[in-house]
UniProtKB/TrEMBL annotation:
Protein name: Putative quinone oxidoreductase, YhdH/YhfP family
PANTHER family with a match to the protein in the record: ACRYLYL-COA REDUCTASE ACUI-RELATED, SHORT-CHAIN DEHYDROGENASE/REDUCTASE
Species of the source: Paludibacter jiangxiensis
Domain Enoyl reductase (ER): 19-328
Transmembrane segments: none
GO terms assigned for molecular function: acryloyl-CoA reductase (NADPH) activity
Domain of life (superkingdom): Bacteria
UniProt cross-references to SMART domains, sorted A to Z: PKS_ER (SM00829)
């Protein structure tokens, strides 16, 4: 096939990483079992890292980022995945060292391909993307450990970011009270749209729990998306048998904690990985997100961008200035 397609290519020019929209051909993609025409991708913090030349995410450039993609199968060499089927790919190596969803086509192993849940449009699937899957896994981590809405407030950090805002939206949809920890003064998103019950600034939250091995019990559970002192603050301030999930390290990858929250309060710290979890586990969360866990505000918290708008947006996300979700629409 001679098909040409557009993609955002990141390459190193004189030691500087640049992002340019270019025409590629299918021969530029890796040889894999399933070729997909991508309709939407979504933009995550990890994409911003890949697009900035972060070798911890992407080892070889030129590279097309995009850890999420949804679209239709164009060619498949495996029986169970049919041509024209709507499918979803998130995580694994997509957009890291395998050409990702910021291109109009991707070529991936069959094991990465998930059928699009019937209750989802392609666009809705990307409203969630990896951020939503991670939010879903975090909420599920609380529920599976006995945190019901009656147990008390849930504190969520990185509240205006992708994982944070979607975690809040899902929790509110399920009837939980939510306290948002945020570095931004964004009452419109947090109060008007996401309807959080309280906002605590990042500085206040950090100062409140710093330098103490344990603090007053305040929250039933926490969903942390940033790491560092905010994560340790959550461990110190959740109730007896409280649960805290952690998935990200935008603030710090260090965790400074004593063992007191664990041995005196039975607190559980649950690590969340959305990348290498099994396809079955992913499908379970996708099915919940497309039905009982689907919040009403998805469209409201999401901005749609074009390939040409991506370079500026990726720079903004890298600086920690994400506001809600962003999806990329291919033509
Ligand atoms: P976003 O860029 O969408 O949001 C991150 C948010 O974190 C920002 O909007 C901001 O929210 C807050 N923030 C930014 N800088 C800092 C800082 N220096 N200190 C404290 N908070 C800060 O990212 P995502 O939601 O896509 O991802 C969040 C984290 O989760 C990332 O570290 C990402 O790598 C990780 N992740 C992990 C996954 C996994 O499988 N384990 C999957 C997906 C993401 P506010 O201003 O409201 O505080």
């Amino acid at each position: 096939m001679e098909t040409k397609f557009k993609a955002l290519v990141v390459k190193e020019v004189d030691g500087v990483f640049v992002k340019v929209v270019e025409n590629l051909t299918l021969a530029d993609l890796p040889a894999n079992e399933v070729l997909i025409k991508v309709s939407y991708s979504s933009i995550n913090y990890k994409d911003a890292l890949s697009a900035s030349g972060n070798k911890g995410v992407t080892k070889k450039y030129p590279h097309v980022p995009g850890i999420d993609a949804v679209g239709k199968v164009v060619l498949s060499s495996v029986e169970e995945i049919k041509t024209d089927a709507p499918v979803l790919v998130t995580g694994y190596d997509l957009g890291m060292n395998t050409s990702g969803g910021f291109g109009e086509y991707i070529s991936v192993p069959a094991a990465w391909v998930v059928p699009l849940p019937e209750a989802f449009t392609e666009q809705e699937a990307m409203y969630f993307g990896t951020a939503g899957l991670t939010a879903g896994l975090s909420v599920s981590g609380l529920i599976n450990n006995g945190i019901t809405p009656g147990k008390g407030e849930i504190v969520v950090s990185g509240a205006t970011g992708g994982v944070g805002s979607l975690s809040i939206a899902i929790l509110k949809h399920l009837g939980y009270k939510v306290v948002a920890v945020s570095g931004k003064n964004n009452a419109k998103l947090l109060e008007d749209t996401l309807k959080v019950d309280e906002i605590i600034t990042r500085e206040e939250f950090t100062a409140r729990y710093d330098n103490r091995p344990l603090s007053k019990s305040e929250f039933a559970a926490g969903i942390d998306t940033v790491g560092g002192k905010i994560l340790s603050g959550m461990l110190k301030s959740v109730n007896y048998n409280g649960v805290v999930t952690c998935c990200g390290m935008i603030a710090s990858s260090q965790l400074d904690t004593s063992i007191f929250p664990f041995i005196l309060r039975g607190v559980k710290l649950i690590g969340i990985d959305s990348v290498e979890i099994s396809k079955d586990a992913k499908m379970q969360i996708w099915n919940l997100l497309s039905t009982a866990w689907k919040p009403d505000q998805l469209k409201e918290i999401t901005q749609e961008v074009s390939l040409e708008e991506l370079p500026k947006l990726l720079d903004l996300i890298l600086l920690g200035n994400a506001k809600g979700r962003y999806i990329l629409k291919h033509n």
